[in-house]
Amino acid sequence: MVYFLMLVFVLGFTYLQMRGWMQTIAFTISIFIAFLLLVAFSKLLMFLVRKFLPMSLSYLWRQGFANLYRPNNQTLMLTVSIGLSTAFICTLFFVQGILIKRVTLSSGANQPNMVLFDIQNTQKEALDSLTRSYKLPLMNQVPVITMRN
Q1: CB count, 10 Å around CB of 119?
Q2: What is the reported pTM?
Q3: Which of 28, 63, 100, 146 has the fewest CB atoms within 10 Å, i.e. the most exposed one?
Q4: How far apart are CA 148 and CA 19, in angstroms?
C-alpha cells in the first residue's frame, strides 16, 4: 500500500510539473527503472561481499562487511537512496551546464556582459534608474513569456 501511494505521489507531482501524460509516464517509468537497477546493484553487492570476503581480514573488517547482509538491515534502502540522490544531483549539474552554455555571450563592445532574469513590472523603472545612475548602458529589455504545453 505504501509503495502504491509513493507511485501515485510521483505520478501526480510529475503531472503537475509537466502537464502531459506521456512525459509524466516516461519520467515515472525512468525513475522506476533506476530504482530497480539500484536494488539489483545493492543485492549484487551484498551477494559478492558474502561470497568473496577473505577470511584473512581482521575481525573488525569481517564484522563490518558481514553487517551488510544481516537480516533486517538497511543496506538495500541506503544504497538505493544514495544512488537516486546522486543521480538527481548529477542531473541538476548537467541541466545547469546546458543552461549556462545557452546564455554564453561574446565579449564584443556591443554585447552585454550581464543578463538579468525575472524582473517584475514594478521593478523595471527602479532597475533602469539604478543602471543609468552608474552610467551603464541598457542594451535591451526583452519580456520573457513562459508557456506550458
Answers
A1: 14
A2: 0.59
A3: 146
A4: 7
- pLDDT, tens digit, 9 for 90 and up, residues 31-68: 889 889 999 998 898 888 888 888 888 899 888 888 88
Burial of 131 (0-12, 13-18, 19+ CB in 10 A): middle
Q: Looking up cell 526583452, which residue turns up?
A: 142
Report residue 4 as a C-alpha cell: 502504491
Alpha helical stretches, state H, the chain: 2-18, 21-52, 59-66, 75-102, 121-133
148, 19 Cβ separation under 8 angstroms: yes
Is 46 in contact with 69 (CB distance < 8 Å)? yes
Q: Residue 40 in contact with residue 77, Cβ under 8 Å?
A: no
Enter the C-alpha cell of residue 47: 551477494
Amino acid at 103: V
User: Phi, psi at residue 10, to the nearest 5°?
Assistant: -60, -45
